[in-house]
Amino acid sequence: MNVEVGRDDKKGAGTPLEYCQRALKNELQIKLLPGEHWWGGLVTDGAQMPFDENTEYSRDLGHPEKDAMGLGLPSNQVSPSLVSNRGRLVFSKFPFKFTFQRGVLLVQGKEVEFGQCGQDLRGAYSALSRIFFGPSGKMPASQLFTSPQYNTWIEMPYLPTQEKTLAYAKKLLEGGMKPGVLMIDDNWASTYGTWEFDRSRFPDPVQMITELHELGFSVMLWVVPFISPDTATFRELEKRGYLLRQSDGEIALRRWWNGISATFDLSNPEAEKWIHERLRYLIEVFGVDGFKFDAGDIRDYREDDETSAGWTPVEFCEKWAQIASCYPFNEIRACWKNSGLPIAQRLEDKPPAWGAKGIGTLIPNLLAQGMIGHPYSCPDMVGGGEISAMQAQSRIDEEFFVRYCQVAALSPMIQFSTSPCRVLTGKALEAVKKALDIRERFLPLIMRLATESACSAEPIMRPISYHVPGAPKIIDQFFLGENLLVAPVIKRGQKVREVILPAGRWVGDDGIEYLIEDEYASVEIEVPLGRLPYFQNRDLKNVF
């Protein structure tokens, strides 16, 4: 079972809408208010957020793998909801298309609701959570927060072995890293869908997992909803009717990043039951703690697929994450709705790149996750997790690795694959360990926020506008809760950066105090490599 932390039933899904002036239509034209900013929709659009009167942008949430120009993009986490800093919200149970153009928000879909709920972003989000999804009262396993996560993916792509996995874990500890959750990634099984250890590479998985447990690690396995054709598992599942069929009745074979495979018909309750039986077998027989649920993207399904229950593509993506939520040790990269569930949501694979295609997307996308109801977020693997780009590197950019780690250090979760002890030297390694020490200091705060979020559904990482409604568009800072403002460095070679501080008395990580009397003000700080800038609000209590 997931970690149960209590629930306020008054905030559950299905709460009446009497406190929210609303309209229910299939098309809405909403004129933006002066200074109005909007968040929501697709997490990979985070860098476009907040949408405002100057935004020219369009997104079809029913087909999030395509951008406004029809180009392919990762679909990632999606929610048919939008919230604004002027207390307004839009949502539906169904996918909709939205367009920001010339100061107008156009929404086209089915049973779209629009309401004025409060006067600010926090009020709009609070109403959204009460109306649309509600908190589950549960959170993922606490070790996903309290310790680093480690993944074999970059260290041993496609060829993890028992020997390499144990060596990886031991070298992490020898390098001074804290034991945590260890994920054995792609290709631990002989074929996709068998979910049986490949004994040529994992001769004694029980012994391996027992040893990892003794070292202080929990163990997760990578799984996808794909089944390799021409295997015994494929033939068994085809005979039982558990595989998705295309419109002509033939088994649907879909191309994904590892080739061509069949996929489960998750609308069939018996197929879902089979999945849970196999996962419980891995837990009970081998001692596995949980699973990384990869894939399940909306793009892997078709509107005309022949399904047991007549589902649409978004419903398959939704079900895959719901299956993940049954296991406390979980991770999801693609998701449709499922806001408020106890799911660890990882960003899509990131390349080791500065700027808008790499590190510059981390904070905006993490904030977008929170604003669609996914507070338990993880900014991919420190240093980058996009395998082809990582393999193309001639050497590790130590400055990039450090700055990436500093962003992740005060995110809800932090995950490594590339071992810092293997690739970093001198000041860079010291800076990473300092960032991890800072995380240890603020773990009580992170855990309190995670626990509270299970009951309130509030985001852990929050845009500046969440607490400062009139703040300008800021995509390189965030609030961790209400009392801690974090301003990591995300630009190469940066020695000085600007930080926007709201009204109040703030004390920086360097001990310098700032008294801000206006709604907000800009300050300039020095940011050497080892510095992760953060500021505590001395006017508010319970920082920890």
Written account of the structure:
The chain is of the alpha/beta class and 544 residues long. Among the domains are: 3-134, Immunoglobulin-like, CATH 2.60.40; 461-537, Immunoglobulin-like. 26% of the residues lie in helices and 24% in strands. The protein contains twelve helices and 27 strands. The strands form six sheets. Strands 2, 3, 4, 5, 6, 7, 8 and 18 form an eight-stranded mixed sheet that branches. It has a six-stranded parallel sheet with strand order 17-16-12-11-10-21. A six-stranded antiparallel sheet has the order 22-23-24-27-25-26. β10 (149-151), α3 (162-174) and β11 (181-184) form a beta-alpha-beta unit. The chain is globular. The two termini are 28 Å apart. Mean pLDDT is 92; it is low at 1-19.
Topology record:
Layout: E1 3-4, E2 21-31, E3 38-42, E4 57-60, E5 77-84, E6 88-91, E7 97-101, E8 104-116, H1 121-133, E9 138-139, H2 143-146, E10 149-151, H3 162-174, E11 181-184, H4 205-214, E12 218-223, E13 226-227, H5 232-240, E14 254-256, E15 259-263, H6 269-286, E16 290-293, H7 313-324, E17 329-332, E18 335-336, E19 345-346, H8 362-371, E20 377-378, H9 387-392, H10 398-409, E21 415-416, H11 420-423, H12 426-456, E22 461-462, E23 478-480, E24 484-486, E25 496-508, E26 513-526, E27 534-537
Parallel strand pairs: 5-18, 10-11, 10-21, 11-12, 12-16, 16-17, 19-20
Antiparallel strand pairs: 1-9, 2-8, 3-5, 4-7, 5-6, 6-8, 7-8, 13-15, 14-15, 22-23, 23-24, 24-27, 25-26, 25-27
